[in-house]
Amino acid sequence: MGLMRLLPRPHDRSRRVGESGSDDMAEDAGEATALHTEDDSGNVAQVHETAGGELRQQPLVPTPVPASADGTSDLRVIALANQKGGVAKTTTTLNLGVAFNEMGYRVLVVDLDPQGNLTMSQGMNPDSIERSMFDVLVHKVPISDVVEHREVDIAVSSIDLAGAELALASMIGRERSLEKALIEVRDRYDYILIDTPPSLGLLTINAFVAATGVIVPVQCEYLSLRGLVQLENTLAMVRENLNARVGVEGIVATMFDGRTLHSREAIEILEENFGDLVFRTRIRKTVRYAEAPVKGSSVLKYDPTGSAAEAYRELAKEIRVKREAHAGQGASGGA
Ligand code: ADP
Ligand code: MG
């Protein structure tokens, strides 16, 4: 079945979402409420359709702000988020973390998903864990108390965390619980990567508030553009109210299979709509990613010389290069 372009091509702002009326890869295009375009200077922007039908444009990526006012802190806190399950959030959190660690960076990964897949993927059983991120977020236990030292440092999850949304809901400062917990360890790490659950609830909001940037893994097999729009709308609310500097740092295409037209078209659609936000590095589909966590290890340790490990090393390098380019822009454009 033919695939439509859900969103207009860059520079073609006149077309509305869903206008061509055929089917998206996975979505009912007619229900989308926002679209992404690129302005003449190449900046990706989001265009919201207001109730009156006019278009209001806001930048998708905020201007880079140094991590601290004096610019001394180099810490990056990256939330891996996508409210869809099974897109490789957990796989990307661990393997990217281990790749940064190989490069010499100090890395903490945080398991913020009550399912505890990240915790399991380092060989621990979330059911037998006594204190977890639940106690950190709800009972203000220092985060260092729940950090285990494995391939990288990992702040563990347990099934208790499923009750955190409810317990946090009635607390003052409920969105800032993780941000506050990270203050204790912020000097110990260069990268903190946060794995989030498949929802845009309070746990994920906590990750957005604590983060300097968000990386969105998307599955080439099932491209959900409407999901990306919802995610960006949530981030826009967080920017307005809680954390002005957070934005999508990049979109990473996962489970890519170059032999299928479907996968190639997914990449094409992503690049048409999100331009440079889409990382050049694609994570190919391979069973290695499912095998490694069963052994309690990252793919970089499980199959160090394989192409699956190499892909995450490439992604880590690309993120670092992008970050340096951004920092340079911030410095030269700050006058
Ligand atoms: P999420 O955290 O978004 O739910 P996971 O990282 O748990 O997603 O990945 C979902 C499943 O897909 C897991 O079984 C994982 O091992 C597998 N997987 C992840 N990345 C790939 C890939 N590139 N190729 C094949 N399988 C993958
Ligand atoms: Mg997961």
Short description:
By secondary structure, the protein is of the alpha/beta class. The protein is built from 11 helices and 10 strands.
The hetero molecules present are: adenosine-5'-diphosphate, magnesium ion
Tell me the CATH architecture. Answer: 3-Layer(aba) Sandwich
**Multimeric state:** single chain
Poorly predicted tracts of residues: 1-24, 26-59, 62-72
Q: Bin the helical content.
A: 25-40%
Fill in the CATH topology: Rossmann fold
Ends apart, CA distance between termini: 52 Å
Coarse shape: globular
- Total helices: the number is 11
CA radius of gyration: 20 Å
Approximately what portion of the residues adopt beta-strand conformation?
15-25%
Model description:
- The chain is an alpha/beta fold.
- The chain has a single domain, classed as Rossmann fold.
- The chain is 35% helix and 15% strand.
- It has eleven helices and ten strands.
- The strands form two sheets. It has a seven-stranded mixed beta sheet with strand order 6-7-5-8-4-9-10, sandwiched between helices. It has a three-stranded antiparallel beta sheet with strand order 1-2-3, with no helix packed on it.
- Strand 9, helix 7 and strand 10 form a beta-alpha-beta unit.
- The longest helix has 26 residues.
- It is globular.
- The N terminus is likely disordered.
- The structure holds adenosine-5'-diphosphate (ADP) and magnesium ion.
